[in-house]
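Build the 3D complex.
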Amino acid sequence: MRKTLLIIPILFIVMTAFAPSAEIAIILNKENTIERLTVGEAKLYWLRKIKKRWPDLNKNIKPVDRKSGNPEQDAFYAKVLGMSATDVETYFSQRQYEAAEKPQDKFATDAAVIDFVAEEAGAIGFVNTASLTAEAKAKVKIVLIVP
Amino acid sequence: MKKLFLIIICATVYNFTLAQDTKIRFFGQPEFSNTSSTQTNNFKGVSNVGQYIKRDTSTSKTNFNTGTFALFVTSQLSDRISVLSEVSFSTSGNKSSFELQRLMVRYNFQDYFSVRAGKMFVPLGYWNNQFTLGLILQPTIQRPLALRTVSDGGVLQYKDTGVQIEGENITSARLSYKVLVGNGIGYYGSNDKTDHHVAVTAQVAAEPADGLKIIASGQFDRVEKGRPNPNGTIAALPDGGQLSLLVGSVAYRNPEKKPEFIAEFVHQTTNFDNIGKRTSYSGYVYGGYKVTGKITPYFLYNYTQAGASSTEADPYFAPLPVNINTLAIGARYKFNSNFIVKLEYENTLNKTIYQDITAGPLTLDKGFTNTSKNNTLRAQLAFVF
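Done.
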């Protein structure tokens, strides 16, 4: 009984340590007229599922991703997309091979994602909320925080 | 000439890499197969009462195949314009060949209206547009016979050169449409076209739930007397006529869900000018279940009936009526999005029905059939880099 009581908190600590824990923010270019997105909408726009161009902006939706192996990407895939990294790659590859659709742009750091979203009117990206300094907040629009 | 072509390809590839937003991918899919075949010939003999003769022959072969190697290039030239090219290289015996599979430019006005021009897959069905020559994306080792490309032993032409208008994400039911006007059957975009006929292929689809697609497609064209049929089993078609190909498709594939399902039915009718109407049909069902994120067992059943009876072959498909049943059971293991291994067992029953041999009122031979059974074990390594 004592062993069981010990195992439960250990398991909890281990699971918490491996769960995607980063708090992320979904960001858009300042020109974009959209002010708020739900998790479901963010997913559909990022995957270019319901729209391929922003409705008011009339620009291509450009999903922005991080290069693999970082907590921000893990959190975004798990909490927003509900897909594995392999599924995301396969999804974009399929659309690229079928209709010459450009796959997502990938960057090594949050700072690079913020700079790209600030420059590209149609971009939609995700970053760790810790990376959103006052300077970064001035460059992009935050439309969703995912704890 | 071949060297010059390769140099041009390399130079093009190099220049593309310098351009922004250009993606170059190489697909490889080497394959191992072991096939055992049994052929049975049945002669019923003279006028239903004569001899019955049965002959069996068995063969088997083991084969390592390099498979098709495909070079795929896409580039986003501007906010609205993208281009795509796909070239395949394959080896058969001592000969190697390449084929320009697709080459097209796409202009995206809005979600509900885009234009493509060039050589592309015709908008028929689900499988034909969803899975390319890069077999890493395809759930099975081979395409279902119903939708196999001619270069891969199939019977119908699934590529064409022309102009396509399309739109998607229309209304909340996510309706989409595609209409292609192209050169049509027997023409692959070369300059050998001498008539004014064009083929029209159209598709409407809905995605009422995420991953669930319901599609209706049709192709309407004229086949020309004297030209070969698409799969080359008839060197010169005995008659010309109007061809219509109708395809109904239902597919459910959602990366977030475990089950996956595709079913398609192809019905082809040719109204020949002199020999009359001939019909053939084919259909398949694919089902798979993601046991884990990496392992997916699956099955694929295909049924094809070319020609309606022993006396009514469909010259568009084959000189003799053919009935084909194929069942494949397999599993794929996805190491990651760039490397997949597939293992498959396939059983094919191919029945060819010969016409009765008659002399005046007498039937000299009735019901001669050739039945071919093939059992094949296949393994495929599909990768992209």
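The interface with chain A takes residues 21, 23, 72, 74, 76, 79-80, 82-84, 86, 104, 106, 108, 110-111, 129-130, 132, 134, 137, 168-169, 174, 210, 255-256, 293, 334, 336-338, 384 of chain B (CB under 8 Å).
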